[in-house]
Design a protein that fits this description.
Blueprint lengths: L27 H6 L3 E5 L6 H14 L4 E6 L8 H19 L19 H12 L4 E6 L6 H16 L8 E6 L29 E3 L5 H15 L5 H11 L3 H13 L14 H14 L2 H8 L4 H12 L8 H10 L3 E4 L2 E4 L2 H16 L18 H22 L6 H14 L4 E6 L6 E7 L2 E9 L5 H15 L4 E7 L12 E7 L2 E7 L1
Parallel strand pairs: 1-4, 1-5, 2-3, 3-4, 10-11, 11-13
Antiparallel strand pairs: 6-7, 8-9, 9-10, 12-13
Helix pairs in contact: 4-5, 6-7, 7-9, 8-9, 11-12, 13-15, 14-15
Length: 516
């Protein structure tokens, strides 16, 4: 049977195209050999569970260790008396499923244990009875509620510090976040998990990285090798660009292109092109599968908003909790930092976030997209700018009051209006990052690209910088015209009177400026 690109659950090498997860976490073997306790963290759908299951099987099969993966995500009751005994029983079940009989937990080892020490006692008895050093991976560890999480961490620490008394040789805690962020599970405003850290024994915190461009190509070429269907070099580059190498997104795009039941390029003799990739991208964005929906649901969290909002506006973040918040949102996989530039993690997430935050406004735009399509099939940008001015005059004041992202609200209203118009057959390419003082939108419609810059009216060189930025970007697109929209939210001019339009030439480019 031909393998497929997997987007549901752990990858199985016999059924799915797969990049061996250890390639992305080369330190893992050394940490096990050293007998260390450590943390692995990465966003959802990056291959953590695939890594753990494959690696624990490999460790056991190689004959040196007895290794097991235990998921603790189902223990959601914040009650040590109930959760720890249930966890102990689950570990016994997992051992029976994953290990040969001689390496399993001893009979009745977990019966009648004190919840406050039950996990430690079970692991100690098991380690004493097992003929090989024991390795345990606790998956989804940060899904545990506060007091249960603290108990688990403390029992693991107590067992570790009691060695050489019998206890697991190596333990990994695996989840979305690094251990210092586990305090989120206890109290949002808590600084620590107690008077001292209950897991100050970790050797390393490892991040399971995304695919590199070479690994994306390697994954796609597995399909080519089995089916003879080729991806053009530009298509492979575009898949990496659109996804940033995020494993689920790479597989989702490739699946939509080739192996899904409604694949765009079912004919194996047809080469996958960039146009195919962009069409598949749009399907993913519109469909918003569970993984993507779970990310957008996070947008209403205060910590997430405090990070995403400066990115959307191009402004510097000023909130005192920003660095901690950014680490949290980065661990969710929503943002990245590249050479100090903090931005949305990849173009697909960028588009989904923008659409999710603007959807409600889009539904209030009565203007018909066909009004703005010129005879040659391109957008009449002058008419669009005037159309937005009228929409802003009529609706801007009300919309601004009702939007949760207040600082980014003007930008989001414009994006919503633009999306409504472009939905009929074009694309919007969005470029924004915190601290850049710019938000660039490139409208690709009817074979022509137009640049629009959004700015807030503050700073004495705001206009000068805006003109230079629009002019430079327009020239990059070989255009002699560009558009600058300036929002003055503190203006005392009534909304119904706002909307001055002027034109200024900047280095050979006519810049149309709308002030609202």
């Amino acid at each position: 049977m031909t393998r497929v690109f997997n987007t549901a659950g752990p990858c199985l090498a016999e059924n799915h195209y797969i990049i061996p997860p250890l390639k992305r976490l080369s330190q893992l073997q050394d940490l096990i050999e050293g007998g260390y306790y450590f943390v692995i963290h990465a966003p959802r759908q990056t291959g953590k569970t695939t890594l753990l299951r494959n690696f624990s099987r490999t460790l056991t099969a190689e004959g040196k260790y007895a290794a097991i993966t235990v998921s603790v995500e189902s223990f959601v009751q914040d009650d040590i008396e109930k959760s720890i005994p249930s966890m102990v029983r689950d570990i016994e079940r997992r051992a029976a499923e994953q290990l040969p009989e001689e390496f399993r937990t001893p009979d009745s080892a977990g019966a009648g244990l004190d919840p406050e020490t039950g996990l430690k006692t079970l692991l100690g008895r098991w380690s004493s009875a097992c003929p090989r050093p024991l390795v345990v991976f606790f998956d989804e560890i940060d899904a545990l509620p506060g007091t249960v999480l603290i108990s688990v961490l403390r029992q693991l620490r107590d067992g570790y510090t009691s060695r050489p008394a019998p206890f697991p040789h190596s333990v990994a805690l695996v989840g979305l976040r690094d251990v210092q962020d586990y305090r989120i599970q206890v109290r949002q405003d808590s600084e620590t998990l107690g008077t001292s850290s209950p897991f100050n024994i970790k050797k390393e915190s490892l991040v399971l990285r995304n695919f590199t461009a070479a690994e994306v190509e390697e994954l796609l070429m597995q399909h080519t090798g089995e089916t003879n269907q080729e991806f053009s070099a530009d298509a492979m580059k575009e898949i990496f660009h659109q996804t940033g190498g995020q494993p689920w997104l790479v597989n989702a795009l490739a699946s939509q292109l080739t192996t899904r039941y409604d694949a765009l390029v079912k004919d194996g003799k047809t080469t996958v092109t960039v146009d195919h990739v962009m069409a598949a991208r749009e399907i993913l964005i519109e469909r918003r599968d569970t993984h993507l929906d779970s990310l957008t649901a996070r947008l209403q969290e205060g910590r997430v908003r405090r990070v995403i909002e400066p990115v959307l506006t191009g402004e510097h973040a000023t909130d005192p909790t920003y660095d901690d918040d950014f680490s949290y949102v980065r661990d969710l996989g929503l943002v990245t930092s590249d050479q100090g530039v903090r931005q949305i993690a990849n173009p697909i997430y960028r588009e989904i976030i923008a659409r999710a935050l603007t959807h409600q406004v889009q539904t209030q735009v009565a203007d018909q997209p066909t009004w703005y399509v010129a005879a040659d099939g391109t957008l009449d940008m002058g008419k669009l700018i005037i159309g937005f001015r009228e929409f802003w005059r009529e609706n801007g004041e009300v919309l601004l009051k009702g939007m949760p992202y207040q600082e980014a609200a003007p930008h989001l209203v414009f994006m919503a209006y633009l999306q409504r118009i472009v939905n009929t057959g074009g694309q919007i390419h969005r470029e924004f990052a915190a601290g850049t003082k710019r938000v660039d939108l490139v409208v690709d419609f009817g074979g022509r690209k137009d640049v629009i810059e959004l700015k807030r009216a503050h700073g004495y060189k705001m206009l000068e910088h805006g003109l230079a930025q629009v002019s430079a970007y327009a020239r990059r697109l070989s255009r002699d015209i560009g558009y600058l929209v300036i929002f003055d939210v503190k203006s005392e001019i009534p909304f119904e009177e706002r909307g001055e339009i002027e034109e200024i030439e900047e280095k050979g480019v006519k810049v149309v400026i709308l002030r609202v």
